[in-house]
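Q: Could you fold this chain for me?
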Amino acid sequence: MKNFRWDTAHLKGCRFKGRFTGNDFGEWPSAPGHGSIEDCDFSEAHVDWSRFLGGDARTLRFPRWPCFTFLDPFPRWKELQALPWPGDKGPIIGDVLAAGPPSTVAFTLSATKLAKWCSTTPEAIKAIVEKVEGVYF
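A: Sure. Below is the predicted structure, expressed as structure tokens.
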């Protein structure tokens, strides 16, 4: 599923499988109460450039490597942008997080797709993210 906003769905106890790119899960700030996400499992899904909005990220199971998830990314965008990202486009991650809604509790990327886009390798990306607190992979 590509570029889908789940902002009108109340997702509880769901198990996600398949590929999700550019999805927003949870409550969109402009429509409070219309959507939510809790106790959902993404461990068997491939998720890329997707945000989790509102709610408690501790109730979610995120996808495993080669996907990785920044927890509480909005207030940390400058820290994440300043990392020595490999390749030629890594710092854009901070720009994306800065532009996102403050209610973003998690942001998930695919290292495989990011590496291809940045002209680097997933291993080079992992070498950076495994040193950062608040990253699940």
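A (continued): The CA atoms of residues 2 and 21 lie 5 Å apart.
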